[in-house]
Amino acid sequence: MSPHAGTAQRMTDREVALKPSSLVGMADVSVAPTAGATPSSGRDSVVPTGSAVADAAECAVIVKTHARTFTLASYLLPAEKRRAAYALYAFCRIADDLVDRAKPGTEAQLEQQLTEYEHQLAAALHGRPSSAVFREVAWVTREYEVPADPLYELLAGVALDLRPTRYQTWRDLERYCEGVASSVGEMCTHVFGVPGGNEVRTRAVRYARTLGVAMQLTNILRDIGEDAHRGRCYLPEEDLAMFGLTPRDVLNNQALSRDERWRPMMAFEVGRARALYEASVPGIALLSHDAHRCARACAVGYAGILGAIEAQRYDTLSSRARLGRMARMNVLWDAWRFRAAPLDTATVGNGPTLRWDSTTDAASKDLVRLA
Q1: In angstroms, rounded to a whole number, what is the distance separating the alpha carbons of residues 352 and 345?
Q2: How far apart are CA 256 and CA 140, in angstroms?
Q3: Residue 18: pLDDT over 60
Q4: How far, in Å, CA of 120 to CA of 124, rounded?
Q5: Which is more confidently placed, 41 or 312?
Q6: What is the mean pLDDT of the segment spanning 322-338?
Q7: Does residue 89 contact residue 148 with C-beta atoms inside 8 Å?
Q8: Domains detected in the chain
Q9: Would you state the pLDDT for residue 319?
Q10: Mean pLDDT of the residues in the chain
């Protein structure tokens, strides 16, 4: 979607955000039903066998090591759904960490490893898992009817980072975000559960995919400096050009955060991310009641990173914006108190439709509006 005036386009109704990492051992993980929790989506809670407990523990280590906000949010889920979400996160994180190891001259080798990882996924989905994570993936796809497509979509998305890629337009970047994050939103929708049948679930997936785009854009804005060290610039070239900037400036100008053009450009992108979060919120009401709080915590927690970016005057080139411990506790408190309005699927709609508009003044504080 281009933000230029006169060229507003309809956003695809789709979209991390739980990203992943390499296996780092095992740890204790609770997989017994949470006290007071009700069975999910009509499914009886199942206490795993000893080997399943060990497999779930490996996935839990990955989550707790790499995803502080999601780890906290996950405790708002019933134990079985938490186990399932951890399995999906672990699968995604391992793939993501694989491509993040890329250095000049290693791309072909890592691409082969990613292909092998995809083959392991295929084997797991056909009943032949080769590791703890893939045993858990096989279980969650079977137990929660998670389709294979978003898992393969995730792998195709992260593979883009193995070769030099520039994003000319917002729509180009949005497609990347869909691959690496909307896919995760779709997986999680199946785990969280959607009462009301396939038609309602299709609508919930659209909202979840939009939330994924918002979360991935947040990741990109938070990690600009880290990505630049890897030779990556994800910001759309046409967005940078609106403010007289280029990808080369992002990659090579260490003083760019003090440039008068930087903050207006970042404010523009933060505004876009906030509009995406706002558009995705109605989808929470479509989820099973026992997933409302976790979904709320994930959305609010990640959106809070935008405020942290603003608090450091948009300088994510020299330091990464983070939510402090107290802010994360506030996110949990907000989610704990959250009560979705009584569900009326007729008023929720079929999924977000966004139109981007910009003024002719690139320095305007109202460069992006939800029309």
Answers
A1: 14
A2: 45
A3: no
A4: 6
A5: 312
A6: 78
A7: no
A8: 50-351 (1.10.600.10)
A9: 92
A10: 82
**Span 55-100, pLDDT tens digits:** 999 999 999 999 887 898 999 999 999 999 999 999 999 999 999 8
pLDDT, position 333: 76
Length reported for the chain: 371
SS3 116: helix
Helix (H) / strand (E) containing 111: helix 107-125
Cβ atoms 265, 245 nearer than 8 A: yes
Q: Which of 195, 284, 256, 213 is nearest to 13 (CA)?
A: 213
Q: Taking the CA atoms of 305, 308, 310 and 314 in sequence, report the sign of the dihedral they define.
A: negative
Q: Is 370 helix (H, G, I), strand (E, B) or coil?
A: strand
Q: What is the pLDDT of residues 24-34, one digit of tens each?
A: 233 333 333 33
Neighbouring residues of 46: CB distance < 8 A, sequence distance ≥ 6? 80
Which of 123, 37, 141, 134 lies closest to 84 in space, CA to CA?
141
Measure the CA–CA gap between 158 and 287, rounded to whole angstroms: 27
pLDDT for the residue numbered 31? 36
Q: What one-character DSSP code corresponds to residue 134?
A: H
Task: Name residue, tokens 């405790």.
Answer: 75
CB 247 within 8 A of CB 168: no
Neighbours of 15 (CB within 10 A): 33
326's CB contacts (< 8 A; 6+ apart) are none
**Cα separations (Å) of 155 from 20, 91, 171, 259, 322?**
12, 10, 20, 37, 27
Percentage above 70 pLDDT, the chain: 78
Non-local CB neighbours of 101 within 8 Å, separated by 6+ positions: 110
Name which residue leads in pLDDT, 33 or 239. Answer: 239
